[in-house]
Amino acid sequence: MTITLKNDFHHTQIGLKSRHGHRLSPGQVAKARKALCGIDGCTCGGWCGERGPQWTSDHRARITIEPTEDGGADLVLEARA
Questions:
Q1: Helix (H) or strand (E) holding 14
Q2: pLDDT tens track for 1-59
Q3: Using a CB cutoff of 8 Å and minimum separation of 24, what contacts does 55-59 make?
Q4: Which strand (E) or helix (H) includes residue 77?
Q5: CA 7: distance to chain centroid?
Q6: How do 23-24 and 61-67 pair as beta strands?
Q7: Which among 5, 18, 33, 49 has the fewest CB atoms less than 10 Å away?
Q8: 32 phi, psi to nearest 5 deg
Q9: H helical segments located in 21-61
Q10: b or e along 25-34 (b: 16 or more beta carbons within 10 Å of the residue's beta carbon)?
Q11: Is the separation of the CB atoms in 3 and 55 below 8 Å?
Q12: Under a CB-based contact definition with an 8 Å cutoff, are residues 36 and 15 in contact?
């Protein structure tokens, strides 16, 4: 699954392919943080540097990002009602 994470404070975005189901590797999380903000000390975003609501490309499900112990992230999809 390809997702696009956005940061609505810096007006940035990055497309990533989730691997092993709905999961981002630690390297993908680091890449997202750098692309979405990249400013040392900035606290604008979440675990992956995202800010604002995150949706699948078809806008059928909202994405919640949950950090994992290895530095990666699980993507939890919540379907629209």
A1: strand 12-17
A2: 788 999 999 999 999 988 778 999 999 999 999 999 989 888 899 999 999 999 887 88
A3: 56/1, 56/3, 57/2, 57/3, 57/4
A4: strand 73-79
A5: 9
A6: unpaired
A7: 18
A8: -65, -45
A9: 26-36
A10: beebbebbbe
A11: no
A12: no
Place of tokens 């900035």: 42
How far from each other are the two terminal CA atoms of the chain, in whole angstroms?
21
Pairing of strands 73-79, 12-17: unpaired
Pairing of strands 73-79, 61-67: antiparallel
Instruction: Determine contact, residues 64/76, Cβ cutoff 8 Å.
Output: yes
When divided into structural domains, the chain yields a total of 1
- The answer to whether 39 touches 24, Cβ cutoff 8 Å, is no
62-to-10, 54, 74, 78 alpha-carbon distances in Å? 21, 6, 13, 5
